[in-house]
Amino acid sequence: MSTHRPRYDGCTVIVTVDAAADLVPVLETHVREQFEELADYAGFVSAALYKSSDGTRLVQYLDWASAADYRAWADDPLWDQLSSSRLFADLVRAGSVKLDVRSFTAVRVVEPSEPET
């Protein structure tokens, strides 16, 4: 039997990046650099990175306690200082990378219930 939570009050940001397979390792490096810093930010809950089977899409999930916590992280000037961020931005501007960033609030989360003892 599963348990149901009607709502998770945090903010989930889903970032989808589409690029040629040869660019994806560069983009992964950028995300890995970001992940090293995440735990230091107030309101950070968790993060995950997925790569498509064909190697042309990355999907990043970022869970935050609130949308304000996410904005504070995203607006931090630190990201402009990372060389991988500058390269990433250049690839987006050149049209080599397609980027979609959206924030969500969960309407329903289903989790397995505790096993009966």
Question: What's a quick, concise take on this entry?
Answer:
Helix content is 32%, strand content 39%. By secondary structure, the protein is an alpha+beta fold.
Molecular structure report:
The protein is α+β, with helices and mostly antiparallel strands. It has a single domain (11-105), classed as 2-Layer Sandwich (Alpha-Beta Plaits). It is built from four helices and six strands, in the order E-E-H-E-E-H-H-H-E-E. The strands form two sheets. It has a four-stranded antiparallel sheet. Strands 1-6 form a two-stranded antiparallel sheet. A hairpin with a 5-residue loop joins strand 3 (44-51) and strand 4 (57-64). The relative contact order is 0.30. Mean pLDDT is 87; it is low at 1-7.
DSSP summary, beta strand count: 6
- Rg result: 16 Å
Integer count of domains: 1
The SSE order reads EEHEEHHHEE
Low-confidence segments: 1-7
Number of helical regions: 4
Helical content stands at: 25-40%
- Give the end-to-end Cα distance, rounded to a whole number of Å: 13 Å
Q: Tell me the strand percentage band.
A: 35-45%
What's the architecture, going by CATH? 2-Layer Sandwich
Mean residue pLDDT? 87
